[in-house]
Amino acid sequence: MTIATSTLSRHARMMAAFSVLLAAVLLPLSFTGGVISTPAIQRALGGSPAALSWLTNGFMLTFGSFLLSAGVAADITGRKRIFVAGAALFCFSSAMIGLTQHILMAGLLRSLQGLAAAMILASGSAALARLYEGPERTRVFSMLGTLFGVGLAFGPVVIGFITDALGWRWVYAMLALLSGMVLLIGLLFLPGAEKRQQQKPAGAGLILFTAALILLTSAVMLIPAFGFFSLTVLALFLSAMLLFIGFVSRCQNTPNPALDISLLLRPCFAGILLLPVATCYCYVVLLIIIPLHFMGGDGMSEARSALYLLALTSPMLFFPSVAAMLTRWFSPAAVSATGLIIASAGLLFLGYALQSSSSYFLLFSLFITGAGAALPWGLMDGLALSLVPVEKAGMAAGLFNTVRVAGEGIALAMVSAFLTEMNALNLQKTVHGYAPDVIHHAAAWLGGGNTERAAAILPAISRTLLRGSYDSAYMFLFRVLAAVTLACALIVWMMLGRKAPE
């Protein structure tokens, strides 16, 4: 504990911690809020499938792309400054979303919200670490993870009921109010952070890394509109690859790099980085596509779809603790790999459950998938820091969080593109008399879960045929997600069993 924090009273320290812990609930609420309220926003503001998907993808794009840069900025300029600035930007963007009358402006403001979330997350956990030491720090970080899980588990329910009862604008009014509380409490009680770095890291490297992530995610997001082999998409992929190469070269030839590439050469650490990628595909993407399926394909209300989603999210409240307990008898690699195998089985069940009439089978499949994903979820943060030298722990944490959040953004964009393309292929085989671009437009709406708009675009096509295409795309998607999750489980098992180089 530094001199600055040791002079804080117990009350001031508790209030400072409360501002960060409240933010831990706020961030998953903002993530799920964009999803659950999307159909209501579409009914009020209209918009194309691409504009509506930006409400989620735009948030994740800036959240993941700026996380590493925000962490470095917090180390240089002070954690409190970045935290307070992020809370202020989050409050402003949330309030403006609630007032906007245009879908494109809402998407732009969601991108600002994502940038603010990156600033809050990157600086908040670092500020929290300065407030406590030893067992107290362990307890408060355990509470941080628990509250994040609470936000993920109950956020859809809260957002769903607010949307049903009051309207989607009140969702963002609530987010503005909560972020305003975070701002005020953080401003009053967080200790002024000292400048920790005497030497500035390579700013050019951070710019290259951030730009590469933005271009890569944008390329994936544009596949439904332009096609994978379009010049626009290929140019973005090529530009992203060149920027990543430039970033790696910069890191290798700079005395104080933004990222120590040698971390990636540690097999155990590389295996840990695969865990958040795996949980993206077996858990996080489901938080987006399952509610859209319930509301768009099955006609559920926002509140009812959120209640069903509890079967998926509620295991995050207690299964991470089960994972920690299991490590007394089994290795973290065994627990993590077993969890991913269970999640893979749950995904296969889920593909069939969504087409069945049994609510019990659906709830069981959601619960099994969530429980399996929760086992590695409860271990991977601690493992990421335990497998690197102490002096590189901060950099490792920044890299891990960047891989997690940026991976989530890319995964969401890939799944959206996959559903659109699968529906387009299915419709092209069975639908005749419509131009290819009309079929693709209808497929984009089907990929977003809106069967009504797809039927309006293809009025001569029966609802049964459209529903068959929709169900077939989801079935194939869940098989792919199960295969990816199973492959990650096997690789994690092999890599976590190897020793890192000295």
UniProtKB/TrEMBL annotation:
Q: Which GO terms describe its cellular component?
A: membrane
Q: Which UniProt keywords apply?
A: Cell membrane, Membrane, Transmembrane, Transmembrane helix, Transport
Q: Gene3D superfamilies, alphabetically?
A: MFS general substrate transporter like domains (1.20.1250.20), Multidrug resistance protein D (1.20.1720.10)
Which cell locations does it reside in? Membrane
Domain of life, per lineage:
Bacteria
One MF term from GO for this chain? transmembrane transporter activity
Q: How does it sit in the membrane?
A: Multi-pass membrane protein
Q: Name one Pfam family in it.
A: MFS_1
Q: Which residues cross the membrane?
A: 51-70, 82-105, 111-132, 144-163, 169-190, 202-222, 228-248, 269-294, 333-354, 360-379, 399-419, 473-496
Primary location recorded for the protein, binned into one broad class: membrane
The Major facilitator superfamily (MFS) profile domain extends over 12-500
Its protein name is: Multidrug resistance protein stp
